[in-house]
Amino acid sequence: MSLAKSPFVVQIKELLQLLDAEALLALARTATNNRILPLNAKEAIEIILLHTPDLGRLFSYRRITSQVLFTYLHDKKVSSAGFSNKNQLMLAIQDLWAKQSNKDVVSEHVTVKRRATSSPESKCRKGRREVRSNSTGALGNFVGGDVSITNICVKQYEVSGVQVLPTCVVTPTQSRATVVRSDEFTRDFCEWYFTMVNRLQPECAHLIGDMFREEIFYHNSTTDIYLIGQTSEELHAQGGANTFALLRDTFNKFGLLFSPNLENGTQAFKSNHGMVRICCCGTLHHANSFVGIFEQENGLICSPVDRTWKIMYIKINLRQMSGQTVPPSLPPCQVFEIET
């Protein structure tokens, strides 16, 4: 059986029409193992439908990105709030198609990788927590402006003597050490972190993931939150307990849900002293409404005691916007190895 006989053929065509002609021609060649070369986009769609056996294969194509799925849901006025990866966007689309066609869709179990997780340790001592603002700071009152990153450093650290690895390998001489690619590490961390944060909200409490907690931060960690719009507010905290409390309280106050762009909205840089700096951007949601975008920078350090990665600092911009059709993105950066 092929998708040409699928009950969702109309919806699949709508999804494929979001791709440009070049992407469709390439996708048709992929579906036929380069045996058939279409002449135009319309013919390419028919070939893709005829030579793709099922929806699982369709969504596995590299050119069916999270951004394409996000745009499709946005065009259909379906909220993507709380969807932190491609699997969740895919399942949302299948559910939508099932409702439209009155068909049952068997949903696959969505797993959350936790390569960059931290294990609990003793309670953190209290530090300082301060708030500086020039407004009441309600996120709903902000008016979106320039989406260029501010407050967050995007200058790349100098990286010397690093080797790009094709896959994750175990270092034979160190039984506890595993070397991973920085891009894989970054995606795993962002998926783990934002799933954990989204679970603070009742509508995402069912997601599979860890509990957002104080122990993932270092005792002397810091956080800086910038609410950006026509008016502005800054929130700052120092110390693991206060960092955790400020982030939790801010996200709960505004009921924020994060949808990170894991396809092309992440970066990783490495300092000469071992800190890994991870940048990520994506869209912000409240319940079923799109409310803006976020830009976040995280400083991670691996503990020499138990080799778990903990957060040393977080800087995050929360920008209220309207009319965003695609997730924000970041330029590609150098890939290096990280020992975990």
Structure description:
The protein is an alpha+beta fold and 340 residues long. The protein has two domains: 99 residues, no CATH class; 211 residues, Nuclear Transport Factor 2, Chain: A. Helix content is 28%, strand content 23%. It contains eight helices and eleven strands. The strands form two sheets. Strands 1, 4, 5, 6, 7, 8, 9 and 10 form an eight-stranded mixed β-sheet that branches. It has a three-stranded antiparallel β-sheet with strand order 2-3-11. A hairpin with a 4-residue loop joins β4 and β5. About 21% of the residues have low confidence.
What labels describe this entry?
globular; three-stranded antiparallel sheet; 8 helices; Nuclear Transport Factor 2, Chain: A; single chain; eight-stranded mixed sheet; alpha+beta; 2 domains; 340 residues
